[in-house]
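Hi R.,

Here are the chain sequences for the assembly we discussed:
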Amino acid sequence: MESLVEALKKAQATSFAFYLKAHNYHWNVEGPNFSEYHAFLGDLYAEVWGAVDAIAEHIRTLDAYVPGSFSRFQELSSIEDELAVPSGRAMMSKLYIDNMRVLSDLQAAHAVAETLNKRGIVNFLEDRIDIHEKHGWMLRSYTKGE
Ligand SMILES: [Fe+2]
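And here is the predicted structure of the full complex:
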């Protein structure tokens, strides 16, 4: 069960980092499409924020403690911190790449949960994978054309 706890902690930290970057971009985005980016990023951060709590509660269900500090999240997360303020379009392409990192950590946790036959966690992670694939479609769509 230890391997599942570790994989879920990583998925939780990467999801938190993704949430934080989307919220950061929601606050700081500028430009002619401000309103659209601001609203899209608002929906995105809110959706992922809810998932961070759900992943944490699955970790507690496995009787392990949940990481909840910046330093632990930074250690565990697969996503690099954002210190600059990119253009709206660059924000979308950065989040598209980060979304793939979230997917990869969710898939890794899913594989471990399958091995241990933890059906509830398998189902939960499949729903998260499905939602992040949809986020990926939307983020990718912003970066095409012009
Ligand atoms: Fe807001």
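Residues 26, 42 surround fe (ii) ion (CB under 6 Å). The chain has a mean pLDDT of 97.

Let me know if anything looks off.

Best,
T.
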